[in-house]
Design brief:
- The structure holds 2 protein chains of 2 kinds.
- Helices cover about 35% and strands about 25% of the residues of chain A.
- Chain A is α/β, with parallel strands linked by helices.
- Chain A has a domain of about 120 residues: P-loop containing nucleotide triphosphate hydrolases (Rossmann fold), CATH 3.40.50.300.
- Chain A has a 6-stranded mixed β-sheet, sandwiched between helices. Chain A has a 6-stranded mixed β-sheet with strand order 19-22-23-16-24-25, with helices on both faces.
- In chain A, helix 4 packs across helix 5.
- By secondary structure, chain B is mostly helical.
- Chain B has one domain: Orthogonal Bundle (ABC transporter involved in vitamin B12 uptake, BtuC), CATH 1.10.3470.
- In chain B, about 75% of the residues lie in helices and about 0% in strands.
- Chain B starts with 6 loop residues before the first strand and ends with a helix.
- The chains are: A alpha/beta, B mainly alpha.
- The interface between A and B is large, with 53 and 45 residues.
- Strand 9 of chain A pairs parallel with strand 1 of chain B.
Chain lengths: ~500, ~350
C-alpha cells in the first residue's frame, strides 16, 4: 500500500523555516524546518514530548514561534489562528473541540454560519455540512446534537469541520487515538482520497503502521530537534523507532536495584473499563512495576479503575497483606487496605493548594492525629515536620500553603502525606512530570526506598529513561491491553517503543 | 483500498418514527412539560379556581416569566445575572421620576441596557466572575433605587397611562401579557434562528471551541447581558405602569423565582444547554403552582417549601445527574457484594 516515491512532486504549499519555540527555559522546538507539497501526506513522528504538537500549533497559528517563520504558498503567515485559517490551514485537534449541545451541522459550520440579515440559512448550512460529511464518506445524522454521537463520530465531525473550510493544508494530530481498527482504516483511506485531490496533509501519529500505510514522507522529531526527514521508501519501521528513540540504548548506564521481590501484594485480574480491555497484573512486595505505553493507551484508566477511583465494568483486584487477602471494590476500601495513589494531576487531584503543607500531610492521617474527631495541632505539626524532612521538602516550612511550592516540592508533599500511612501498595502516575531534574532524582530515591522497605510499587510513566531506570518489570500497554512484558534487564527504550507503537518486537526473546 | 465508499458508524435514523423519536429525545424541556402536566392536574383537583382566575395566574406568570426569559440568554452562555430584580426596581423608579411617560419609558429601558453593559464590562473586560460582579450590582442598584426614590414609592405622573395599561385588550389579555408573549417570541427566534443568538450555545457549551471558531465571544457576552438588563427593565416598566407607582423594593422575590423557572425549564447553569421554550414552561409551572397553592389556602411559608421541592426534583431528574446517581448506586452494590464475598 506504500505510495510510490516517484510520484511527481507538487509545488510546496506550506513551509516552516528555522522554527524555535521556548516555554520558560525549556526549548520545545529547536530550529526545525519542514515543507509540505500539494497532494502529499507528510508524517510526523516522535516520542511523547518530542515537540510534534507544539510544531503543529505553530503551523496553525495558535502559537507564535520565537524564531523563524511559517509561509503558505510563499507568503509569510502573521496574525494568529484566524489568519492561518484564512490562509487555508485547518487543524484537527487532539482534544475534541466541539460544542456538546449543538448539532453536527452547527458544529461543522461553527463560526461561519451562512446568514441573511443575521438569520441563519438553515438549509444552506445543512447542505454545506452534508457535503463535507459526504466528502469524508461517513454517515452522520447532522441534526443530532454532538453529545448523542459516539466518540468516533465526534472525531469525524471534527474532521468534517476542517474539510468544510476548503483548506489547502489539513493537519491531524493523533486522529486515530479514539478509533477502532475499522474506523482507522476508513479514516486513512479518506485521507488518501483527499490527498489525491491535491490537499496537503500533515499527519501526526504514534502508530508506525499508519505512517507506513499512507505517508509519502516522514519526519522524526526528538527532544525538539528534527532528526531526519525521509521518503517513506527509504526507511523501515525498525529504523524509524531507532530514530525516534535516538539515545544509544545500552549506553545509558542504568543502576538497577538489587530487588528481592516477596509475595504478590497487589493483584489485578481481568480489569475492564472505558479504555481498558482486560488487564491482568501482579505487583510483589519490594518490587517496582512500570507501566509504559503511549499517552491514551489506557494506563491511567487502568490504574484508576483498578483502584476504584473510576468505575470498572469487570475485573477484580486483591490486596494481600500479612497473609490476609481482601478484594478491593472501592477506593475507600483500597485506602483502608494500605493502598496509596498519587495521581497524574497532582494540582487538581492530589493536593489542596490553599491549605498548608501540614494540613495536606495530615489529610489521609486524620485518625492517628486526633482524639475522637478533634484534631491535635501539635501532633500534626510534629508528624508533618518529620515527613517533610524525610522527603526533603525545601524549604521545610510546613506552615506554608502547598500552592507556594514548586512542582517538584508539591510532588514531595503528596508522597509525604501517603508515606505517613506506611502504604503496602503505592501507585504513582507520572510521578515526575513537570518536575526539575534535582527534585526528580530525589523522588526516584524515595520511590526506591519505599520498595526497599517492602512496599509494592506501581509506576506509570511516559518518561522512558525514568521508567527503565526505576522498574524491575515493565508492562507495555497498548489499546487498553498489555502488549508485552519486559524484565528490567531486557527492557530498553527501543523494545518499549516498539511494543507501544504497535510494531513487532524484533529482537527481544 | 476502495475509494468513495461510505461508512455507517452510527445507527441510521431512517423512517418517520425513528426520526420522530430522535427529534423528541433531543429536547431538554421534558421535565418542565411533565411538571406542568402534574401541576395543571393538581390544580384542577385542588384549586380549579386557578383557571377561572386566569387573569391573576397569567399576570403572575408574566412577572417572573419575563425576567426569567431575559436571564436565560445569560445562563445559556454559562454566566449568571443576579442583578435583574434590582434592575427592575431602578428602571421603574427612573421611569416614574420623569413626567413625560414616553420619555420615562425610553429612559427606563435605556437604564436596563446600560446596566447590562456595565455587568458585561465587569465580566468580560475586568474579568470578574459573573456571580460576584452581578451580586455587587444587585446591592448597588437596589441602593440606587432607594436613593433616587428617597425610599418611598414614586407615584406615576401620567396616571391615565397606567390605568389604561392595566385594561385588558381582548378577553383576559392585558398589555403585560402581550409584551410577555412578544419577548418570548423574539428571544425564541433569536436563539434558534439568528446567528448571534445561536452562538450563545457555543459560548456556553465550549468557550474555547467558540474562540477557536472565530466567534466574537466578548461581543456575544455583551449582547446577552444587555438582553437580560433590557428585559428586566421592561418588567420594571410594566410593574410601574400597573401599580401607577414605582416601588424601590419591587421585584425582590422575583430574582430567585426567575432562576427557578429557568432551571425547571431545563436550562443548565453550566451553560450551553436549555431553551427559551423551556423557561416559558418552567415559568408557567411555577406560576400555576404558586397561584394554585394560594387559592387552595396554603400559607406562603408552606408554598416556598413546595417551590423548593419542585426545584430539587427538577435538578435531580436531570438526565446527567440521574446517570451519576445510578453509577454511585452500582459502585455501592459492588462494594457490598465484595465485602460479603471475603
Amino acid at each position: 500500500m506504500n505510495r510510490s516515491t516517484s510520484e511527481p512532486a507538487g509545488p510546496v504549499v506550506i513551509e516552516a523555516e528555522s522554527i524555535v519555540k521556548r516555554f520558560g527555559g525549556a526549548v520545545a522546538v529547536n530550529d526545525v524546518s519542514i515543507s509540505v507539497r500539494a497532494g502529499e501526506i507528510y508524517g510526523l513522528v516522535g516520542e511523547n514530548g518530542a515537540g510534534k504538537s507544539t510544531l503543529m500549533r505553530i503551523l496553525a497559528g495558535i502559537l507564535r514561534p520565537d524564531e523563524g517563520e511559517v509561509r503558505v504558498e510563499g507568503k509569510a503567515l502573521h496574525g494568529g489562528a484566524k489568519a492561518a485559517l484564512e490562509a487555508g490551514i485547518a487543524l484537527v485537534h487532539q482534544e475534541l473541540s466541539l460544542v456538546p449541545e449543538m448539532t453536527g451541522a452547527e458544529n461543522i459550520m461553527l463560526g461561519s454560519f451562512p446568514t441573511t440579515a443575521g438569520f441563519i440559512r438553515s438549509a444552506d448550512m445543512k447542505k454545506i455540512a452534508a457535503d463535507a460529511i459526504e466528502e469524508i464518506g461517513v454517515q452522520i445524522d447532522l441534526d443530532e446534537p454532538i453529545v448523542r454521537l459516539s466518540v468516533a463520530l465526534r472525531q469525524f465531525v471534527e474532521i468534517a469541520r476542517a474539510v468544510a473550510r476548503k483548506p489547502k493544508v489539513l493537519i491531524l494530530d493523533e486522529p486515530t487515538a479514539t478509533l477502532t481498527p475499522a474506523e482507522t482504516d476508513h479514516l486513512l483511506a479518506m485521507l488518501q482520497r483527499l490527498a489525491a485531490k491535491g490537499l496537503s496533509i500533515v499527519y501526526i501519529s504514534h502508530r508506525i503502521p499508519e505512517i507506513f500505510s499512507i505517508c509519502d514522507r516522514v519526519a522524526v522529531l526528538r527532544d525538539g530537534n528534527l532528526i531526519e526527514m525521509m521518503d517513506i521508501g527509504e526507511t523501515t519501521p525498525d529504523d524509524l523507532v531507532d530514530k525516534m528513540v535516538g539515545r544509544d540504548l545500552k549506553l545509558d548506564l542504568q543502576i538497577h536495584r538489587e530487588s528481592n521481590p516477596g509475595d504478590v501484594v497487589f493483584s489485578a485480574r481481568g480489569i475492564h473499563a472505558p479504555g481498558v480491555d482486560g488487564i491482568d497484573l501482579d505487583v510483589r512486595a519490594g518490587e517496582i512495576v512500570g507501566l509504559g505505553g503511549l499517552v491514551g493507551a489506557g494506563r491511567t484508566e487502568f490504574v484508576r479503575a483498578a483502584l476504584g477511583v473510576d468505575p470498572k465494568t469487570a475485573g477484580t483486584v486483591t490486596v494481600t497483606t500479612d497473609g490476609r487477602s481482601t478484594k478491593i471494590a472501592t477506593y475507600r476500601a483500597a485506602v483502608r487496605n494500605g493502598v496509596a495513589y498519587i495521581p497524574e494531576e497532582r494540582r487538581t487531584d492530589g493536593l489542596a493548594l490553599n491549605m498548608s503543607v501540614a494540613d495536606n500531610i495530615a489529610l489521609p492521617n486524620r485518625a492517628r492525629l486526633s482524639t475522637g474527631s478533634v484534631l491535635k495541632p501539635k501532633m500534626i505539626a510534629e508528624f508533618a515536620t518529620n515527613l517533610a524532612d524525610s522527603v526533603g521538602l525545601r524549604p521545610p516550612d510546613i506552615r506554608r500553603d502547598a500552592g507556594e511550592y514548586s512542582g517538584g516540592n508539591q510532588q514531595k508533599v503528596v508522597i509525604a502525606k501517603w508515606l505517613g500511612r506506611e502504604p503496602r501498595v503505592i501507585v504513582l502516575d507520572e510521578p515526575t512530570r513537570g518536575v526539575d531534574v534535582g527534585a526528580k532524582t530525589e523522588i526516584h530515591r524515595l520511590i526506591r526506598d519505599l520498595a526497599d522497605r517492602g512496599a509494592a510499587v506501581l509506576v506509570v510513566s511516559s518518561d522512558l529513561p525514568e521508567l527503565l531506570d526505576l522498574s524491575d518489570v515493565v508492562h507495555v500497554i497498548r489499546d487498553g491491553r498489555i502488549a508485552g512484558t519486559l524484565s528490567g534487564a531486557e527492557a530498553d527504550e527501543k523494545s518499549v517503543m516498539t511494543l507501544a507503537a504497535g510494531g513487532r518486537l524484533v529482537e527481544a526473546s | 483500498m476502495t475509494t468513495s465508499q461510505t461508512m455507517s458508524l452510527g445507527e441510521a435514523t431512517t423512517g418517520f418514527s425513528a426520526r420522530l423519536r430522535a427529534a423528541l429525545g433531543r429536547r431538554t424541556e421534558w421535565r418542565a412539560i411533565i411538571l406542568l402536566v402534574l401541576v395543571v392536574v393538581g390544580a384542577l383537583i385542588f384549586a380549579p379556581t386557578v383557571f377561572t382566575a386566569y387573569q391573576v395566574t397569567l399576570g403572575f406568570v408574566a412577572l417572573i416569566g419575563l425576567i426569567a426569559l431575559g436571564l436565560t440568554a445569560v445562563i445559556l452562555m454559562g454566566e449568571l445575572d443576579l442583578s435583574v430584580a434590582s434592575t427592575l426596581a431602578v428602571s421603574g423608579v427612573v421611569m416614574a421620576m420623569v413626567p413625560n411617560i414616553f420619555l420615562g419609558v425610553t429612559l427606563a429601558l435605556l437604564t436596563g441596557l446600560v446596566i447590562g453593559a456595565v455587568n458585561a464590562f465587569f465580566v468580560v473586560k475586568v474579568g470578574i466572575n459573573s456571580f460576584i460582579a452581578t451580586l455587587g450590582m444587585l446591592f448597588a442598584l437596589r441602593g440606587l433605587a432607594f436613593v433616587l426614590s428617597d425610599a418611598e414609592p414614586v407615584p406615576l405622573t401620567d396616571i391615565e397611562a397606567g390605568i389604561s395599561f392595566g385594561m385588558p385588550l381582548i378577553g383576559p389579555i392585558t398589555p403585560r401579557i402581550v409584551l410577555f408573549v412578544l419577548v418570548f417570541i423574539a428571544l425564541h427566534v433569536f436563539v434558534t434562528r439568528v446567528r448571534a443568538g445561536r452562538e450563545f450555545y457555543a459560548v456556553g457549551g465550549n468557550r474555547q471551541a467558540a474562540y477557536d471558531a472565530g466567534i466574537p465571544v466578548s461581543r456575544r457576552l455583551f449582547t446577552g447581558f444587555m438582553i437580560s438588563g433590557f428585559v428586566a427593565a421592561l418588567a420594571g416598566v410594566i410593574n410601574t405602569l400597573e401599580l401607577i407607582a414605582a416601588d424601590p423594593t419591587a421585584g425582590s422575590t422575583a430574582l430567585l423565582a426567575s432562576f427557578a423557572a429557568a432551571i425547571i425549564g431545563g436550562v443548565a447553569l453550566t451553560g450551553g444547554r436549555g431553551s427559551i421554550v423551556g423557561t416559558l414552561l418552567g415559568a408557567l409551572s411555577l406560576g400555576i403552582l404558586g397561584v394554585g397553592l394560594t387559592l387552595a389556602g396554603v400559607q406562603v411559608d408552606i408554598q416556598q417549601i413546595f417551590i423548593g421541592s419542585v426545584l430539587f426534583i427538577a435538578v435531580i431528574t436531570d438526565p446527567a445527574s440521574l446517570r451519576a446517581a445510578a453509577g454511585s448506586v452500582v459502585t455501592f452494590l459492588q462494594s457490598r457484594k465484595s465485602q460479603t464475598a471475603v
